[in-house]
Amino acid sequence: MLIQYGQALGDYLYDVFVAKFDFWLAFGLVAQLLFTARFLVQWISSERAGRSVIPIAFWFFSMGGGLMTLVYGIAKREPVIIVGQSMATIIYIRNIMLIAKHRGKASKT
């Protein structure tokens, strides 16, 4: 019984990651890796600061990974991805705008 589950899982993973491998799967995986990199950036920055911080690189990784994932969702016609990433990308862009605005004010004083 356990062997059958293992074989079924192996067949499933082969079907998803090997048999269906194409440009869009590779693009989607790269998008997800870019998006995941934001957590590593935030974690490393927080460890260095000794407190929780969110560096601007976090927002750029969020925006890049989010936009790539949105393109992937559009190409694959996935409404859940399209809606989720459309809304999230607006938030990422707005945060970058707020950071730039704050830095502009800080440099003038």
How does this model look, in words?
By secondary structure, the protein is an all-alpha fold. It has four helices and no strands. The protein has helices at 2-19, 23-49, 56-76, 79-108. α2 runs antiparallel to α3 and α3 (56-76) runs antiparallel to α4 (79-108). The radius of gyration is 19 Å and the shape is elongated. The model has no long low-confidence stretch (mean pLDDT 91).
Unreliable runs, pLDDT <50, ≥5 residues? none
Characterize the biggest β-sheet: none
Going by helix content, strand content and strand pairing, the class is mainly alpha
Count of individual beta strands: 0
Overall pLDDT level:
91
Query: Which overall shape is indicated by the principal axes computed on the Cα atoms?
Result: elongated
Distance between the termini: 71 Å
Helical region count? 4
Helical fraction equals over 70%
Please provide the ordered H/E string of secondary-structure elements. Answer: HHHH
Rg, rounded, reads 19 Å
Question: Briefly, what is this?
Answer:
With 109 residues, the chain is mostly helical.
Write the layout of secondary structure elements.
Layout: H1 2-19, H2 23-49, H3 56-76, H4 79-108
Helix pairs in contact: 2-3, 3-4
Could you list some keywords that capture this structure?
mainly alpha; 109 residues; single chain; elongated
